[in-house]
Amino acid sequence: MAVNSTAIAVLLVSFLIMIMLRFQIAYAVALSSLFCLMYQGLPLTNICQQMVKGINSFSMMAVPFFITMGCLMGSGGISEKLIALANACVGWMTGGMAMVNIVASYFFGGISGSAAADTASLGSILIPMMVEEGYDDDFSTAVTITSSCEGLLVPPSHNMVIYAMSAGGVSIGSLFLAGYIPGALLAISLMVGSYIISKKRHYPKGDKFSFARLFKQLGVSFWALAAVIIVVFGVIGGIFTATESAAIAVIYSLIVSVYIYKGLDWKGVWKTLESCIDTLSIVLILISTSSIFGYCLTTLHVPSIAANMLVGFTSNPVVIALLIDLILLVLGCIMDMAPIILIATPILLPIAQSIGINPVQFGIMIVLNCGVGLLTPPVGAVLFIGSAVGKVKMEKVVKATLPFYLCMIIVLLLLTFVPEISMFLPNLLGQK
What we know:
The chain is mainly alpha-helical.
């Protein structure tokens, strides 16, 4: 295998320089790939071919559909209903509003699939409510941004669809199933952290638990939660593909938002779709440009070189697994989620498989790693959104988030070294 070290250096060094210069990630990926192809003397028509190839996929259509579903449901007046349901479940505990925040994020994340949407939608309601009830503003914001990462794990998550495409041949149904228990584990971990802090700071409890109130809120929230049931069980049961389920979910969310919850009128629908197009354009550009970058990595044999370097450094599978997590966490500090998945998956997945990590388990690992990256400076998008929504200085939010970083890292280590957490439901229901 001939290794063109100079071409690899041109690709990676130019990419890192542009990242440090705060180029938009899509430009950095595309330009570094362009420089690499020019250095090798390859035809630049490869750029157009690979960009089209990156998004010319039937499975790829699920991504814009899931994003559209999240936008419609997020703007359709369901946030308040899910908050009320979460309050009926856990509001009675010490630090009840923090617990409500975390549980509401689990419910809402299963609809939006976006940590940013979760933070913006629920945070704008819950952070002022928590502050009014006596919670510190930095703590309230920290709880909101960390719990929003549950939505990345709870299906339907468009990031899991992107990973499935990048990994090649991984079942989207299995990934959806694999996310439920890790998402719940993350929620429990954050609740434990919140409980300890709430006890120490004497934060208030909510109203006493009532089964009548719980069942009433379940009835009100049923239509929102049913969207997740339709998508997940439709895919798992083989009734329709992920793309078909996503299209059905868009129609369903439109009906629920306009005619059942009446949180949107048709004028509001068009405004929501306009904002949705902004998000879609960013995601699709990232996927198409990352396809060129992935093409360069593959032709230069970077995945096999990286695997040999890691294995040459150590043969201990525990150390290799920790190094994979460390690499992803570092990447999360300087890159957004979608490009990390698209670029790192072809490189790191073969290494993970070589030490016995299942591709489905690795998908959950990479999603949570990227979720932590969304909360870390200097690029952490959700950190900035939470700071803006909560009107708290970023430095103050980061300090308040430190205990929750620890909770998330503990969950990440459990997912890395206890595969049954991710694989239990896919194995139970016979998903491959």
